[in-house]
Design brief:
heterodimer, A: 323 residues, mainly alpha, 16 helices, 1% strand, flat, B: D-Maltodextrin-Binding Protein, domain 2, 2 domains, globular, DUF3502 (chain B), signal (chain B), ABC-type glycerol-3-phosphate transport system substrate-binding protein (chain B), MetI-like (chain A)
Chain lengths: 323, 554
């Protein structure tokens, strides 16, 4: 029955004498577009698809002379250490929660800042504030680690210097795991907001000015303009950026965590993410296979999350989904 | 039209760029293939050679050195910048000799200290013939894991006899046995060089005397007293500006001082398994069995933390320059090995404390002093290997033989050009020539040839305090035992994941314990630590190591 129905449905489609365009004609027709695509296609082919068979290294006992495919197959043993550590859950939880905070707060703040910038009238002030917010993005995370240590350390830190000169009790964040989630999020926002807001700012610039003018004519005030014109127009950008960001949700920000928190075990309960744990645990034995196993684990989880979220988005608003 | 053209050009450049990349990598990989096969065939041909010629020595004359080759030797150390000019001049001289004798020249491939172990292993893993000779070490440069991974060439006896005859002669057979894995020799050991790298505390003897410790510090209790005094009497000095990485040495030092534990090198950074002096071949981990001792240790370290021996945020302190601060009197102790003490105890120009304070003196409390628990250094603490990716392994061996045994080559490589970087006084000691500048002329601290030093050729440094040093070395020699586990190369494949997790637990808990930063009581933290170790399978690891031990030693 189903088949019959489907066949019936399909039949007219195929019967329409569509002008048969050959593959080569299509290529010829859009050759400029294809050429423009080519670098990106080649890039992904060479740097993403060609190395992909190398994933095999996660399943072998790698040895230099036999190479990736010649080494002995050992199944899932490389994944064992992550599972047997008993920390996989905590690590994944920390990683995901931090990334959620980074993504959600980061994007919200970036949209907010982009709108503020858009509303500013003074051109000079706008440029200066944009530049100042952008600058932290260029600071190496190693330097950020040092800056934070010099601000917060107990004996000679700037903050504690002020606290003690005001007669207040000193604060010892490097012994208090509870202080780090807000601190790390703050540091992340400070560093990334300027950069992230540029994309949104550009998207706002791209909104048809006629719409905004029409709204003004209709008597919309500033807030109404933001609420009914700018935000709805930003929605596709926000959704796409969120989808991209979610793919990396199990990939921790190693640079930030390692440099700011360092290897202080007192703080691990709230700051240890998959990357930092794996780095510490495998640094001593230089094991390519275990490291790749962890990478594969993260990629698979990331893949599942992207596909799921994309599926949800497609259900709700098909236009916004990535694929 | 213009746009089209630009797009086309852009695409074209990208494509050619990528194609170029593809080509070069392809050609390099094909290039490396024949090289590895040629090295194999070369190995075979050397075997044939030596079969034909009955005597190793006569074979040396037959070796074909008609092609001039460059031998690259890999060492840890900073690429010379200030000393570059003198370094280049030295290399020219050295290469003259090497060219004349074996028609080869030497190049040094430096692995800078930042992340040295990763870069070192990565360079070995690439196996593309960038390096020929590899400075390595079984305890700190992953010599055995790399040998197992196939990074080093098996050195057959024939090869050694033919191409490195002096080295072959000078190393006794029992020492060659310690360089074998699965019956094959992989390393050429630095077995004729007296050095001690057992750790301990270097401290200010003058302060200790002021503190009432007339003969200096000789126990951990003395150390506590010493630190307490320094903190009170010299409030401007941090007694010991430790960074967060010292936890392991401290803990193992405390165990050495209070038990007869002898650890196995190279299993993990904590050296958590071993035997005892009376019963060397029964493996245990004192970190599991010595509960009372660890509690005592945890309490003592809490006391040190409260005294203020180190900075409050010691666990995040990565910028410590404690050793240099010791030289100029800004700290009062340094935890490191005997070799470092021989430097700090000597009145060198860099050690300004001796010039600034007339009665300044440095003492050394070595871990294990209380019970004379001293184990001699493994002979593979420094060793030379030949890379399996080398295109000229035979010539590499010939070059090494000269570097190790030829006085001229040895002096050039280790000390530099005589009269420029060093000189000899009437009593045969090494002195600094007139107008010497440490920043531009120092070769001894540049080439880092730690993989075949030779006491027959060493020239003693006149600035060293030899009376003190010889006294301590003689004492060590009278109480030491030889490192007993030289032949044991653990097969850790089945227990690697446990060891990884144990490393992590040890690091996390020991940092808290060793710097007195734990919450709760000492008993609680030690119990928690030991429970975590057991949960991670430390007993399984011990049992597996014991099984491998029994196979080897019984």
């Amino acid at each position: 029955m189903d088949k019959a129905l489907n066949a019936g449905k399909d039949a007219p489609v195929t019967k329409i004498p569509a002008p048969k365009i050959s593959f080569w004609k299509k290529v010829k027709k859009s050759k400029v577009l294809l050429l423009m695509c080519l670098p990106a296609v080649l890039f992904f082919f060479f740097f993403s698809y060609m190395p992909m068979p190398g994933i095999w290294v996660a399943f072998v006992k790698y040895n230099y002379r036999d190479g990736i495919f010649g080494s002995a197959f050992i199944g899932l043993r490389n994944f064992e250490f992550l599972a047997t550590s008993g920390k996989l859950f905590d690590l994944t939880k920390n990683t995901v929660l931090y990334n959620l905070a980074f993504i959600l707060l980061g994007n919200t703040l970036a949209v907010f800042v982009a709108i503020l910038l858009n509303e500013m009238r003074g051109r000079l002030f706008k440029k200066i504030s944009q530049t100042i917010m952008f600058l932290p993005y260029f600071i190496s995370q190693v330097l950020i680690g040092i800056l934070v240590f010099n601000l917060l350390n107990y004996d000679t830190g700037f903050v504690n210097g002020i606290l003690s000169s005001m007669g207040l009790e000193k604060w010892q964040p490097y012994a208090e795991p509870g202080s780090w989630p807000p601190l790390l999020i703050l540091i992340y926002l400070w560093q990334q907001t300027g950069y992230n807001s540029v994309v949104y700012f550009a998207a706002i610039m791209g909104i048809d000015s006629e719409m905004i003018e029409a709204a003004k004519v209709d008597g919309a005030n500033g807030f109404q303009k933001i609420r009914y014109i700018i935000l709805p127009n930003l929605k596709p950008t926000i959704v796409i950026l969120l989808l991209f960001a979610l793919g990396g949700i199990v990939k921790g920000n190693f640079g930030l965590f390692y440099n700011v928190v360092g290897t202080n075990p007192l703080l691990y309960s709230t700051t240890d993410i998959i990357e930092t744990y794996v780095y510490r645990a495998t640094m001593t034995d230089f094991n390519f296979s275990t490291a790749s196993a962890v990478g594969l684990y993260q990629s698979i989880i990331g893949f599942i999350i992207v596909v799921t979220v994309n599926w949800i988005v497609r259900k709700v608003e098909p236009d916004y989904s990535l694929f | 039209m213009k746009k089209k053209l630009v797009a086309l050009l852009l695409a074209a450049t990208m494509v050619t760029g990528l194609v170029g990349c593809g080509n070069s990598s392809a050609s390099s990989s094909t290039a490396s293939n024949p090289s590895s096969s040629s090295s194999e065939s070369a190995e075979e041909s050397t075997k044939e050679n030596t079969k034909e010629s009955t005597e190793g020595e006569t074979a040396a004359a037959d070796i074909d050195t008609s092609e001039h080759v460059v031998i690259t030797y890999m060492t840890t150390g900073e690429i010379p910048t200030g000393t570059k000019e003198k370094y280049d001049a030295m290399m020219v001289e050295l290469n003259k000799i090497l060219t004349e004798k074996v028609n080869a020249e030497l190049q040094i491939y430096f692995i800078p200290w930042t992340d040295y172990l990763s870069n070192y292993n990565l360079t070995l893993a690439s196996m593309d013939g960038t390096v020929d000779l590899v400075g390595t070490a079984s305890d700190w440069l992953d010599a055995w894991p790399n040998a197992k991974n196939g990074a080093f060439l098996e050195l057959s006896e024939d090869m050694l006899k033919t191409y490195a005859p002096q080295t072959w002669e000078s190393v006794p057979a029992s020492n060659w046995d310690l360089c074998k894995y699965n019956g094959e020799i992989y390393l050429m050991p630095e077995d004729n060089y007296a050095q001690w790298v057992n750790h301990g505390f270097i401290y200010r003897l003058d302060y200790a005397k002021e503190a009432g410790l007339e003969d200096g510090v000789h126990s951990w209790a003395d150390l506590t007293e010493y630190f307490r005094y320094v903190k009170q009497a010299y409030p401007d000095i941090i007694p010991w500006d430790s960074d967060g990485t010292q936890y392991g040495q401290l803990a193992s030092g405390y165990i050495l001082s209070n038990t007869d534990y002898v650890s196995i090198d190279g299993l993990n950074s904590g050296a958590m398994w071993g035997g005892t002096k009376d019963d060397l071949y029964t493996i245990y981990s004192p970190y599991v069995t010595e509960t009372d001792l660890l509690v005592e240790y945890a309490k003592m370290m809490k006391e040190w933390d409260q005294i203020g021996v180190w900075k409050t945020d010691v666990l995040n302190n990565t910028a410590s320059t404690n050793r240099d601060d010791y030289r100029i009197g800004r700290v009062a102790a340094e935890q490191h090995h005997t070799q470092t003490w021989t430097d700090l105890v000597s009145h060198t120009p860099a050690n300004t404390i001796y010039a600034d304070t007339p009665d300044a003196a440095s003492g050394f409390f070595y871990f294990g002093e209380e019970r004379d628990n001293v184990v001699a250094l493994s002979i593979t603490h420094g060793a030379m290997a030949v890379s399996a990716g080398s295109n000229n392994p035979e010539r590499a061996l010939m070059v090494y033989d000269l570097l190790r045994n030829d006085p001229d080559c040895y002096k050039l490589l280790c000390y530099g050009i005589q009269g420029v970087s060093w000189d000899m006084d009437e009593s045969g000691l090494r002195i600094l020539p007139e107008g010497y500048n440490q920043d531009t002329d120092n070769i001894n601290g540049t080439t880092n040839y730690w993989w075949g030093r030779n006491d027959n050729l060493e020239i003693r440094d006149a600035t060293r305090n030899w009376s003190e040093i010889d006294k301590l070395y003689d004492h060590y020699d009278s109480v030491k035992i030889e490192y007993p586990y030289g032949q044991f190369v653990a097969d850790v494949d089945m227990i690697q994941s446990q060891i990884n997790n144990i490393n992590e637990i040890h690091t996390n808990y020991m940092k808290q314990i060793s710097f007195g930063k734990y919450k709760g009581t000492a008993e609680e933290i030690v119990a928690e630590y030991q429970a975590a170790l057991e949960a991670a399978g430390i007993n399984d690891v011990t049992a597996e190591l014991q099984r491998q031990f029994d196979e080897l030693y019984k």
